[in-house]
Amino acid sequence: MYAIECKNLTHYYGSKLIYQNLSFNVEEGKILGLLGKNGTGKSTTINILNGFLQPTQGECLIYGENTQNISPATKRRIGFLIEGHIQYSFMNIHQIEKFYSGFYPNWNNKPYWELLSKLKVTPTQKLSTMSCGQRSQVALGLILAQDPDLLILDDFSMGLDPGYRRLFIDYLREYAKAENKTIFTTSHIIQDMERLIDDVLIMDYGKILAQQPIDTFMNRFKQFNIKLTYPDQEILADRIAVNIEKVKDKIEFYTYATEEEVKGFLNSQGIVYESFEEKKMSLEDAFIGLTRKY
Amino acid sequence: MIKFSRYTLVFIGIIVASISIPSLYWTIFEKVPKSVQVYYSCTIDDFVLVDGQNRVDTKGNSYTNDEYERLLPFLFFRQLIADGEMPDSIKGVLVEPSAIGRASSFFRYIPRKIHAPQPALYPMLESQSGKVNLTMPDDYFRINKRIEFIDSKTNKINEEKSSLFTAAMADKGFVFPAAIIAGIPSNRKSCDEGYFITDDQGSLFQVKMVKGQPFVVKVDMPEKLDIVYIEAVDVRSKEFYCYVFTRNQGVYLLMEDVYELQRLPVDGFDPETMTFRMNSDLFNKCITVGGDNWYKAIAIDDMYDVVATTEDKWEGLYERTDGKVFAALFPFEIRTNIDDSAFVNFYFKLSPGFWWVIVNVISVFAFIFVLRKRGWEIKSNIIDVIVVALTGIFGLIAVLFFPNKFAKR
Amino acid sequence: MFKAIIYKEWIKIRLVVYASLVLGLLALINIFLNVRHDILFVDAANYWYAFLFRGVIYFGILKFLPFIMGGGIAIAQYFPETVSKRIKLTFHLPYRENTLLIRMHAFGAGMLAAIYAVIILLFIGGSAIFFPSGIIIDSLLTLAPWFLGGLATYFLVALILMEPMWLYRAFYAIVSAGFVTLFYKIDSIGGYKHLLAFLALLTLLLSCVVLFSGYRFRKGEM
Fold it and tell me: What is the CATH number of domain A2-216?
């Protein structure tokens, strides 16, 4: 059963194509991270998911309902964190809790007060006078209290210092796994994702580069550092090489293939090398390897 | 609901555009319209027509300023006396300044007078106080199902006085409430003649206060008149009390003391659209009725017999260049203020002719061009296209300012 | 849920509501202190005369108050929703988007109307001390377009603020300015008598136009 199904999404801003025929699904109970460089359509996707944007073609379904027209009952099952932890900053923490509690029958304010007890804020302090980190905890606390089945988190790490980020992620993962929640999230800071997500969806301009469980991805996607004997030798890109970054005689070879396959490929091309070693990658390295540096 | 809210906005946009754009056009391009003042000269027994610095008679003779003043000795008698040019007698009649002053009066009616808010209350002056000066009373009256006097000191109805006047009016056959109440609500007049009031049946009465008591006269009408406007005047000749305007039944003077309605020799006068002027002097009355681009002048003697008439007509607004261009650009306009009314309203004016159709068609093409450029279907914008076709530039602005987001690409 | 909606709207606009009431009361106190003073000095008969035949109005200070209040409440209510596109949060609430927006709007317009009602009732009460009904009715006819204009201002400022694109905000502002001016053309007593019903109808129609920019927002114009 899928929490989110997007089929054949195509979107243009004016005449500028963002992506074409994009399809992906998010399984219930999974935490999916959407990665992509700026301008590849992360925000566009989030906006379509939340019904704030009508795609030029195609559709997204959340729990089987078109996101352009989600019923209040289904909206109640979706927790939405806006980029930058935007909330009604003219309220204080009591007012905002009282406000939201009126909309959700399953409202459970325990996690909210639990998160907020760690912050040094006064009961009458307006959100607008709080720090970014404090606001992020309020925003997250509200979503947790709402007790949604699906959480859509748009760039939750923006503006947070490392401490808050860690706090946020650890709390979130523990919560999601304990309660079998589905999470769809984006973040600029890919390091964070590694600790949080089950599945990764990597977007490039106009297409999806990878969608798979993060463990599979990290195991299969490899980087080999190769030192060439003759720096002038060029390596032709092949199906086997996802990306090749060459600086003088040093080559970073990114691939889904095994070491043997790569070596076989190099031999078949007549490439002579001095050294060949596999480099252990973090998710961030893998992301850059996959999407190129520029 | 959302589509409805968009059409509301488009509608509002069209209203605003059809008020402000024409208003801007006229501010920039409107030409001063021709207007002619007409007098009747007793020295040449002919009309004198004044159009700016041009002074001519009906035979085409033109006059200098000095000659012109001599043509109208009653109008310019102070100047003529100062110049030593004032004749002692005209047509064998000895003319004295006091007699000239008594005989001269000036009156002007414009349609705006019947389209104006009326005061809620009127002061009833004492007409025979025995004092030289008239004084303003402390109370004001209104007429609904009776006449009520309200004391301004206490803001309460004076029941006694109200009953007294109500009874006196009812006694003379007044059917409450009143339709028109006309008087001179001021103490700056030579004497007080109270109010000229039409009742619910259209009958005309005079109501005034004499030594604290009501004085009511019912005026006999020669025929049933549909009176639309009465203006009380204080003419020094004491010839008549007021001007009475009817709907297409002529203009009358209510003569003093005899309470007879004297019909003026003006036919086809429409108080809704026409202006009326009357200048009186020792020998004649000169009446001018007119509209935007025409007038008709009638000179009468003191027996109200016609002695001369003249008329003229010139280019109307939409026959002039500025009006023609306007009518070619815009299918209509809405004015909030017009000369003929003191009320703010949406006065809709359709442009004459059909030249504006061209601009409307161009607007439709411009709109379709924009639709194509944005990749929108024309079919799902068909209502917008019709709106533009009907309202031209105004509609084009409105549908572009409030774009149709429901249309398909 | 409706209570929760009102709760948030009230937090946003309460200061402006209080300020409007205070401003209205101060204006009324000013008006009637002046009337009392002038009547003492020039006599009621002359004071009435000035109103009846010279068109001197004693409540001119009220002219732009409804406009300021309408604009003020609309800004207090909708500006915070547009900062950082917070309206997304509102639209994400488990409620039909249009119904939600209409309820928010009805509450704001209702508060504004309530403020107007308080001011007008007190105005009638105060006037009744000094003036007969005819003068009061004519005064109300003169005030009516100003207050209608205030309501129209509320609806149009909401429309402008909720519009996601600056270019269209400018377009709406031009039309709105042109439209709202129509309510303030002249001050002559009863001069709007014949247009009032139509202006009231147009204002009523305007009550739902905020849905238009709300819809544009939801369909991703930005």
Answer: 3.40.50.300
Of B103, B119, B145, which one is at a domain's C-terminal end?
Answer: B103
What chain C residue is nearest to A78 in terms of C-alpha separation? C92
Number of folded domains that form chain B:
3
Residues of C in contact with B138 (CB under 8 A): 43-45
Same domain, B120 and B78: no
Domain membership flag for residue B332? yes
Complex ipTM: 0.95
Phi/psi at A33 (5° precision)? -105, 130
Q: Which chains touch A (3 or more CB pairs under 8 A)?
A: C
Give per-residue pLDDT as tens, A53-91. Answer: 888 889 999 999 999 889 999 999 999 998 888 899 999
User: Scanning the structure block, which residue is given the tokens 């006085």?
Assistant: B161
Three-class HEC string of A4-21: EEEEEEEEEECCEEEEEE
Q: Which of C42, C52, C155 to mutate to test the interface with B (most CBs of B within 10 A)?
A: C52
Listed by start position, the domains of chain A span 2-216, 221-291
Nearest to C87 by CA among A147, A44, A86: A86
Could you tell me the residue ranges of all domains in chain C?
Answer: 2-218
Is B177 part of the contact surface with chain C (CB cutoff 8 Å)? no
- The nearest CA of chain C is from the CA of A54 a distance in Å of 5
3-state helix, strand, coil in chain C (%, to 5): 85, 0, 15
Domain contains B197: yes
The answer, yes or no, to whether residue A239 has pLDDT greater than 80, is no
The two structure tokens encoding residue A260: 């043997």
Nearest to B247 by CA among B183, B180, B343: B180
Which of B217, B220, B219, B177 is closest to B200 using CA atoms? B177
Considering only CB atoms, which chain A residues are within 8 Å of C8? Answer: 88, 91, 99
CA trace torsion B339, B344, B346, B350 (10° rounding): 0
Judgement on whether residues B136 and B259 belong to the same structural domain of the protein: yes
Q: Count Cα neighbours of A32 within 13 Å in the Cβ-side half-sphere.
A: 25
- Whether residues B14 and B121 fall in one domain: no
Amino acid letter, residue B223? E
Average pLDDT of the residues of chain A = 87
Q: A221-291 has which CATH code? A: 3.30.70
With a cut of 50, list the residues of chain B below it in pLDDT: none
CA distance A99 to chain C (A): 5
Q: Which residues of B touch C204 (CB under 8 A)?
A: none
In a domain, B26, yes or no: yes
Q: Which domain holds residue B44?
A: 37-103
Q: How many CB pairs under 8 A join A and C?
A: 71
The pLDDT tens digits for A187-206 are: 878 888 888 899 999 888 87
Contact between A52 and C218 using a beta-carbon 8 Å cutoff = yes
Q: Do B267 and B135 belong to one domain?
A: yes
**C102: distance to nearest CA of chain A, Å?**
16
